[in-house]
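Bench notes, bay 3.
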Amino acid sequence: MPTYEFLCDQCHTRFEAQLHFGESSEHVHCPQGHAQTRRLFTPPGIVFKGSGFYVTDNRKRSGKKNA
């Protein structure tokens, strides 16, 4: 179940809530009980570093050698 970050429009509290993928965020209330909340969009927690991935990475070598 993914965790989403929310912001309360009344008291400006930031909090997290876990929702199913198809579940609506309309019923999420802030910890103080306010109903006016909105979901914040945050960057993913994965960062790719390095030179990248190539077609030849992790590929089995064939029996033939290139000249």
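Next record in the batch:
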Amino acid sequence: MRYLSYRDIDKIAGEVLRHYGYAGEALEPTDVCRLAVESLGFGVEYATLSDDGSVLGLTAFAPTSCMVWRNGKPRLLSIPAGLILVDESLCHRDCVGRERFTIAHECGHQLLHGTDFARTFQAPVSIDAAESFVARRTLVTTNDWLEWQANTMSAALLMPQYQMPKAVKEFAGKDRIVSEHGCITYSEGKGINEIAEFYGVSYTALTIRLKQLGLLTGTCHVQHMLDIQYSEV
């Protein structure tokens, strides 16, 4: 297994995006499903992946089978190498961010781990956990590293490094957002929210990404626009 840094993964993601035409000057959200299917050659299908909603996505490195649920009953499904399965619950319009993150996460496994591991599929327990995992400092097991790398790749594909400074300037009107005592301005908070909506990601995933890139500094533990403490009106 390769131990990759943020910089390594950003470089790989940048090369992938440039190769498939996502490196123009204009701000452009990644069409992650099109990238997965038409550019990278992975299949994307939907099914109920668990009986309790805990599994949102998985992917196969080699032909294998996995359990899915149909009408409340388990069923063994054969899946080919390179197929990404996404839980049907993410088809809802309110789940766009989780759906995009899940597909990009599984693309990350295929891009980074597909040729290195005999294990046939990976499955994050939840996207909420996955998004917070990007910021984890203590990585102990091999699986920890696998999930961290896939989540970091997901963030790099959905929020490209070369676009984020432009996006902050365009939407927030700043080169860098500085949070003082947990407060940001109204325009900065509005700008972050607009960036998240533009790129089809959650507010949490975006703030983690901006902090990682040095575009958001200071303590700013906000989850949603309504939670922002404004320092000006």
